[in-house]
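Design a sequence for this backbone.
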C-alpha cells in the first residue's frame, strides 16, 4: 500500500527548545517511517509577524533545519524544505483567499490571541493588523495541501488552522467540482505541554525561560537551577495548583518515559535543589547525542543546505503536479 502523506512545520523565529523536542520533534521522527513526510521551515509565515526584522527569520532557518536533523529527522525518509522556495504555495494561497471570509479569519482563536499579544505590531486593539497576518491560516492551508497531505502533526493551538484548511478544501472541491485533495487531519501529540521555566505560558526566547536543545550543559544547569518554583517543600505533580514544580516533574517524566505522577512519587524525598540538580543532569545526558550531532551539523552548513536543496526539488515537483490539477479545475490552464 502506498504511504500516506504528512506535512508539518516550524516558524524559524528562534532555535527549537525542549518543548518542541518532546512535543513534536520526537513525534515526527517516529512517524517518518510510516508516512511520506514533509517538514517545512515556515519562513514566509514567520515573516507575517517579523516583517520588520527579516534578519531574525533568515538567521533561524538553518537553526531550525539543524534542530530537526539533529533530533533524527532523516533526509532519506523526510523531505525538509524552506517554504519561500516553493512559489506554488504563494500561488495557491491567492486562489484560496477567495474561499474564506474575513469574518471567519477574524474569529480564529489562535490568530486572535496572537494579535492581542503583538500590540506593538498590530495596535492596542488589533486595529493595525495586516492582511498578511490575518490571512496566514490561508497560507497554511496552501502549505498543507500543496503536497496533498493527509495528516498534520501539530500542537493544540494549531487546530483552528487545520479546521480552516478542511473548510477550504471542501469549498474548493464543491466550487470547482473536483476531488484533488485528501481532507487533512490534525494529529495531536500525546505528550502534555511544557511551559516556560518562569511558570508563564510558553517557552520563548524573549522571556528567557526556555531550555534550547542546542544550549550547552552548563547553561542548561543554570537555567534549571534558576527555574521558578513555589514556596512549598514537597515534590508533586499538580499542574493546576502548583504549575512550576509540576512542569519540572513533567520534564523529568518525559526524559524517563514515565507517567508524571509516578515520577513525582519517586522524587518525593528530594528537596527542590536536589531535584533540580538531578533533572539538569538527566536532561543533559538525554540531550547529549542530539547536541553532538548538532555540533557536527554546525561544522558543515553546506551539508544542511544540500539537504534543503534536495527538499526544494522534491517539493517543487509535487507542487507543480498539484497546481496543474488546480489550474485545470479553476479553468486557468491556458
Ligand atoms: N503555524 C505553525 C506554528 O506556528 C507552523 C506552520 C506553518 C505549520 N505551516 C504549517 C504547521 C503547516 C503545520 C502545517 O507552529
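Sequence:
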Amino acid at each position: 500500500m502506498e504511504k500516506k502523506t504528512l506535512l508539518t512545520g516550524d516558524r524559524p523565529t528562534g532555535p527549537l527548545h525542549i518543548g518542541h523536542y518532546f512535543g513534536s520533534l520526537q513525534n515526527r521522527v517516529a512517524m517518518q517511517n510510516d508516512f511520506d513526510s514533509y517538514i517545512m521551515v515556515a519562513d514566509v509565515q514567520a515573516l507575517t509577524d517579523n516583517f520588520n526584522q527579516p534578519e531574525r527569520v533568515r538567521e533561524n532557518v538553518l537553526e531550525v533545519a539543524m534542530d530537526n536533523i539533529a533530533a533524527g529527522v532523516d533526509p532519506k525518509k523526510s523531505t525538509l524544505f524552506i517554504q519561500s522556495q516553493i512559489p506554488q504555495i504563494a500561488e495557491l494561497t491567492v486562489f484560496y483567499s477567495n474561499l474564506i471570509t474575513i469574518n471567519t479569519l477574524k474569529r480564529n482563536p489562535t490568530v486572535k490571541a496572537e494579535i492581542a499579544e503583538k500590540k506593538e505590531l498590530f495596535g492596542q486593539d488589533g486595529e493595525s493588523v495586516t492582511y498578511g497576518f490575518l490571512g496566514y491560516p490561508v497560507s497554511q492551508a496552501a502549505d498543507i495541501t500543496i503536497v496533498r497531505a493527509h495528516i498534520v502533526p501539530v500542537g493544540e493551538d494549531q487546530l483552528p488552522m487545520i479546521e480552516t484548511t478542511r473548510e477550504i478544501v471542501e469549498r474548493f472541491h464543491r466550487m470547482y467540482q473536483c476531488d484533488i485533495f485528501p481532507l487533512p487531519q490534525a494529529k495531536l501529540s500525546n505528550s502534555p505541554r511544557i511551559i516556560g521555566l518562569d511558570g508563564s505560558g510558553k517557552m520563548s526566547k524573549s522571556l528567557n525561560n526556555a531550555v534550547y536543545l542546542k544550549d550547552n550543559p552548563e547553561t542548561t544547569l543554570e537555567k534549571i537551577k534558576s527555574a521558578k518554583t513555589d514556596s512549598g517543600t514537597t515534590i508533586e505533580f499538580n499542574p493546576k495548583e502548583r504549575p512550576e514544580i509540576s512542569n519540572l516533574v513533567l520534564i523529568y517524566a518525559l526524559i524517563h518515559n514515565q507517567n508524571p505522577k509516578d515520577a513525582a512519587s519517586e522524587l518525593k524525598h528530594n528537596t527542590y535543589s536536589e531535584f533540580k540538580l538531578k533533572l539538569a543532569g538527566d536532561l543533559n545526558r538525554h540531550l547529549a547525542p542530539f547536541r553532538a550531532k548538532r555540533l557536527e551539523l554546525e561544522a558543515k552548513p553546506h551539508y544542511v543546505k544540500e539537504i534543503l536543496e534536495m527538499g526544494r526539488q522534491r517539493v517543487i515537483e509535487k507542487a507543480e503536479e498539484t497546481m496543474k490539477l488546480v489550474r485545470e479545475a479553476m479553468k486557468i490552464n491556458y
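The radius of gyration is 21 Å.
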